[in-house]
Amino acid sequence: MLRVFYSLDCVDNVFFVPDSKPMLRNGETGDWIGTFEGHKGAVWSCCLDSNAYRAATGSADFSAKIWDAITGEVLHSFEHKHIVRACAFSEDTNFLLTGGVEKALRIYDLNRLDAPPREVDKSPGSVRTVTWLHSDQTILSSCTDMGGVRLWDVRTGSVVRTLETKSSVTSAEVSQDGRYITTADGFSVKFWDANHFGLVKSYNMPCTVESASLEPKYGFKFVAAGEDMWIRVFDFHTGEEIACNKGHHGPVHCVRFAPVGETYASGSEDGTIRIWQTGSLTNDDSEPVSDNGSTGRVKVAADEVSRKIEGFHIAEEGKVREKEEGEST
C-alpha cells in the first residue's frame, strides 16, 4: 500500500513520502527540490525543523534519520529495534522525538548525536503519532491499537493526563497559537484546550477520518479527510460543512494547512499530494475565493505543473465542489 505523508515548514515547502525515498518540493509550484536517499524500507513519517535546515524521517527499516535539508546528506541514523512510525523535532530544534512499534518514546539530543537517547515510560501500545507541546515540556502521543492521547511530562517521563477517545487517534496537531489540540479518531474530529485539556468541541464526520487540521491564522475553519477520498472544509464554531474537494482516487491519510493558512495540502494513497486554496479566511464568507478575488469554485492556474510532476498535483478547476443542499455524503 502506497503511503504519502508530508509536512509544511515556515516557507511552505512540502515534504512527503511516496516510498522509501522522501521528497522535498516547493509548496507553491510543486517544483522538485530534492530526494533523500538512504532508507531501505518504507518511510512512515517525516518532518522539517522550524528553520527548514534539517529533515527527519522514521522508517520500517528500524531507523530514524536526520538529513541536511539543503544538500540531502544523511547527518545521522538512529537505530531502533522495530518500525519507527512517528518522529518530531522539538520547538527549539535541539531534540528529535521518535515512537513506533517498540512501544517506546525516545528523545535524541541533536547536539550530541552519538549520545544514547532518553526514554520515557513505556507506551501502552504501538505509537502512531508524536508531537511536542508547552515549549517542549510536554509530549503528546497516540497508539495504533487503543484510543486516547497521552500527555507526558518531559521532566519526569510519566503520563500526566489522557485525552479520552473511543477510537485510536490517527492524527494529532497543536494549533499554531498553542490554544488547541486537534485530533482525528474514528468518525470524529475533536478540539481540546491545550492548556487545561478539556474537550472544547467534538464533531461527527461523514466517514472514518484519518487526519484533521485547524486553519492557523483565524481558526474559523478546519479540514478533515479519510476513507471516502474527499477533503471536507468545516466551520470550526458550528461544524457545518462549507466545501468538499474531489480529486483523489484513494483514501486520504494526511491533511495540513500551510503556515499562513491560505492553502492546505492533502496526501493520499493514490500517490499524489494536492494543494487546495482555502478561500476567504474571514468568518463572514463561506465561499472560497478564486485567484481573481471573486467568490465561487476554487481555481489555481497550475495545469502544466499538475501534468508534469508525478505524485504532486495543484487543485484544478472542477476539482472542488460546493456542497449542495440535500446532497448525500
Automatic annotation (TrEMBL):
GO terms for cellular component: SMN complex. It comes from the Eukaryota. SMART domains: WD40. InterPro entries: WD40/YVTN_repeat-like_dom_sf (IPR015943), WD40_repeat_dom_sf (IPR036322), WD40_rpt (IPR001680). The keyword Repeat applies. Residues 279-298 are annotated as: Disordered. Pfam families: WD40. The keyword Ion transport does not apply. Keywords: mRNA processing, mRNA splicing, Repeat, WD repeat. Residues 279-295 have a biased composition (Polar residues). One of its GO terms (biological process) is spliceosomal snRNP assembly. GO terms for molecular function: RNA binding. WD repeats lie at residues 36-77, 77-111, 245-277. Belongs to the WD repeat STRAP family. PANTHER family: EUKARYOTIC TRANSLATION INITIATION FACTOR 3 SUBUNIT I, SERINE-THREONINE KINASE RECEPTOR-ASSOCIATED PROTEIN. This is Serine-threonine kinase receptor-associated protein.
